[in-house]
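Below is our example:
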Amino acid sequence: MTADNRSRTPKDQAFLEFMKTGWSDINAQVSPNQPAIQEAKHKREELMDAFPDQLIFIGAGKAPTRSNDTHYKFRPSTEFTQLTNWGSSTVEESVLVLDSKQKISTLYLRPTADKDSDEFFANTEIGEFWVGPRPDLNQVEKLLEIETKPLSELDSLSGKKIDLSNAELKQFLSEQRIIKSQWEVSEIKNAVEATKEGFENLITKIPDASKRGERALETAFFQKARLLGNDLGYETIAASGNHANILHWTKNDGDITPGELVLVDAGIELDSLFTADITRTLPISGKFSQVQKEIYDVVLEAADAAFEVCKPGNRFRDMHNEAMKVIAQHCERWGILPVSAEESLKSENQQHRRWMVHGTGHHLGLDVHDCAQARKEMYLDTELKPGMVFTIEPGLYFHENDELAPKEFRGTGIRIEDNVAITETGYNWLSSSIPRTTSEVETWMQSIWDRN
């Protein structure tokens, strides 16, 4: 059955004529963000220099279908966003075209339908009555300082074309995001501060979370994501008990049990579409047990070791290597390695990775796992440089059925994740305001509960 089969929109001629009259124009305010405009312009110029004599097509995309005629919420492509900084206001199916031969940027979009068009009230996908007005071309041109034309003119373009199906283009744009500008770093910092509020709202729900368990915590964080930003930066992980050992647990349908821990990995995406990525492991009763504290402090020690090498000149992979030394040493101390820590750390062995199979960090920005198409020599093997923003997130995971783990450790998973930006002399700890040690976390949680 199509939408037309169930449509009740009147089609009488008198109605159609009547609907086209009596509408005044809406004067929308345009507030250009100059740092964002200049950053996007700089990236477009770099791109055109790298791909001469080309017509480069960068599409914003459209919301994917969820089921039948319903759709997921629209989020423009990362590449389109980095080259326009239009953010959450982006109009679906817009296309940015860069003519690198003439050094001209043009944005093509579908403008708001004229009031004498049936689309205005009858088109359920793009009609103003159904989804709201789209900005006119002049408004977008003033907002972004990019020449703007109707989407209908796009097909008339001729020349040597490339788009995001081109692997070399995708790689270039990914590597272009490795070094963040001052404005971009500040956006990520703002996302971190919003994320802190999301965590605090989540913590308020822990005492009553037994009613809906992990789901209640996920919902509490999402509430702040929509109030303070555009959306979640990624699906929230609210993993209690043994679920914390499932690295990408997003079902969030488990119970919250006093005495256990809940691992929360969450980030708020701002309207600029920059996101934070923070993990804290919280004691559901408000206090860590001695065993939980022992494991937690090892993870914290590993994180601190990674922080120590966060400075220009060191390599990205050095953070992981330093964190792994700590993990291996304590696994040897616990007697769970089949070899010494020294032997385990050799590239051909790595037995300690059984209890931490993921990496220690990744780039962060418009994507939570940013710069993912960059070459290895530009990512893991590169030297740290001012403007790089990434996570530091070691963990230890002891599955409840892991017979090689100490019995008292089984069912416990702990991760601590922070966001940092490299500076000329070291790093800017973007998430320093979010409590991190066991004593800080306990005090934080109790203070939130006391005031609620």
